[in-house]
């Protein structure tokens, strides 16, 4: 199944992850051979995209079937412009258990022949290409010396971040992502005082073929990873409630919460990075959601000591919200495709203390009888199950709750949690079924298993 290198990690990070996935509890349960096999599958599947594209439909604006039909029509128009075939087929299926999700299969890896003319892009750009994007000019690091618009080129991703911008060739560690047509001369990319923008290479033979959603039904079809959609449903927002999203950028989950509430109530979105605030507001406006209120604020300081404050923004008095989503900053090691991660072990382990500070604030801001959902897009025990064990010990008022829908696997062994507690957690673990989710499997089956790595825990405050 693998057609390019496994995810590139620093040796110290690989060793750390191996110790996580081969911890004593796991070894006692499944044995060394199976534990080792799961770890190796994880390293492989992380560099590949999931075998489908997940779209969250804006069912607060239109029925799912209407959005499905409109999306099919738009994507057929798009493909007819780029395909020489007379008949263009677009398969779009509703998810059987999640009422606002549409699934589109991804074709790949495909047999694409590498060319002698090569363009090198950054790892982040290469990952976007594997999910259906074209190459935008800022992502280009190197190109042939005399490249002109119209030239057909092979596109490679720089896996270790070592390619010098403006180079004419690169022989370092890289991954092939497909072939495309240059839309701009080399001089227009590197030899200009004004930074060029727009598409630099239009992909015509990508290694993974999936639809481009650039400008396609932006208010009705929102690209979002399946586990991220599940989070909103697990939180279970109800019309009229006041809900807090503590780390909200770029706003996908914020807007989903507001949509599930039918835009009735208040969704407070906090984000400490100023230049990310406008993106949240734009998403809410595009999706016609008026219940979202966005503030630039550090959520670790979101609890006010003044229980009688009159201003509406942060910090807030204790017990101000019926539900709190803590989609915590994390190491992001579950993201797919991710062909490279250059972080040190120190950087990787820096998130647990921050997550605990945020957790303290979340528990204080939650009303008695309220729901707290904690989630990450990483695969480590320290940021997931260990945080749950710590929270249950630190906050006696919290109890784990069942999740609906629960389409991922249960929690991972290794944090000392009981079997009953692990069953209440939801860990999306693509490595568990990586060899069993081929193209022959039904799309919904693949969609539930071939996801990004993700973790969800749901608590009730007694």
From TrEMBL:
Instruction: Work out whether the entry's keyword set contains Methyltransferase.
Output: yes
* Pfam family for this entry, one: Methyltr_RsmB-F
Q: Which GO terms describe its molecular function?
A: RNA binding; RNA methyltransferase activity
Gene3D superfamilies (UniProt xref): PUA domain (2.30.130.10), Vaccinia Virus protein VP39 (3.40.50.150)
**SUPFAM superfamilies in the record, alphabetically?**
PUA domain-like, S-adenosyl-L-methionine-dependent methyltransferases
The record's annotation in InterPro entries points to:
MeTrfase_RsmB-F_NOP2_cat, MeTrfase_RsmB-F_NOP2_dom, PUA-like_sf, PUA_sf, RCMT, SAM-dependent_MTases_sf
The UniProt entry, under PANTHER family, shows:
NOP2 YEAST -RELATED NOL1/NOP2/FMU SUN DOMAIN-CONTAINING, TRNA (CYTOSINE(72)-C(5))-METHYLTRANSFERASE NSUN6
Q: What is this protein called?
A: SAM-dependent MTase RsmB/NOP-type domain-containing protein
